[in-house]
Amino acid sequence: MAAVIQLEKLTKTYGSRRGLVELSLDIEGGEVFGYLGPNGAGKSTTIRLLLDLIRPTSGRATVLGLDPRADGVTLRRQVGYLPGDFTVDGQQRVDECLTFLANLRGGVPRPRITELMTRLGLEPGARIRSLSKGNRQKVGLVQAFMHEPNLLILDEPTSGLDPLVQQEFLRLVTEARAGGQTVFMSSHIMGEVEAVADRVGIIREGRLITVDTVARLRERSVRKVRLTLREPADEAAFRGLPGVEDLTVRGNEVRCTIAGSPDPLVKAAARHTVTDLLCEEPDLEELFFDYYSAAGQEGRNRATA
């Protein structure tokens, strides 16, 4: 499908401070794209540039085939946006707020709004000012999804949500993709991105480090493994296996890290009776560390070349 978001060397600086550096990226129609990075990496800056909330220093952005600056009104009609800090009139009740926002969009069927409030566990009569952070976030999600836009742009969408509501949010994203909508969501939580994203981009200090599927990112990362055998382990049987590092054998317990395919380790363990197996998938911070370290080393290599 044609690209819904196209970024060409998009750059944003704030005086001497870096915001975004020559970001080039294509997001295809109908895909869920996870945009990962810690606070300050440039995720929100990217999203604000997409919606013309701020202007780029240089470079170009096209969203739904439109220029965010020249075609801003037309573009925003087709976008559902949840900012990182969702704020509305605290005096309004939930249903009043959502009705007001729906009317600004030219009207949204009331059953659609009711369905979303029910699914997310929102009390229609509650005053906005009385809501917790998580419940205010639910209001933000309803207003982003309710008009079934062509493109959903969600900045840290599960912030403040409890685990059950997070799962309902992921179902909403899955349904949106099934309906042909495109979803661009920033996050620092690998689990939620892994569950729904087709592709992932990792950003570091305003620069895009990599774009890939979550599965391939994990294949290239390091996992921690602990094996417990019925009998004492033979260290020689595990040492030197492809991808196995940091090997420690104590009695009937084997600990190591493994990069790439676990097949050689599994075959070596199969010669014993395995009573317990623990494999720790790398969390997001570890993936960041791996890619940040690699990117930093590459930068140092270029500087000394």
Automatic annotation (TrEMBL):
It is a peripheral membrane protein. Pfam families: ABC_tran (PF00005). It is found in: Cell membrane. One of its GO terms (molecular function) is ATP binding. GO terms for cellular component: plasma membrane. One of its GO terms (biological process) is response to antibiotic. Keywords: Antibiotic resistance, ATP-binding, Nucleotide-binding, Transport. Its main location: membrane. InterPro entries: AAA+_ATPase, ABC_transporter-like_ATP-bd, ABC_transporter-like_CS, ABC_transporter_ATP-binding, P-loop_NTPase. Residues 5-230 form the ABC transporter domain. CDD domains: ABC_DR_subfamily_A (cd03230). It comes from the Bacteria. Belongs to the ABC transporter superfamily. This is ABC-2 type transport system ATP-binding protein.
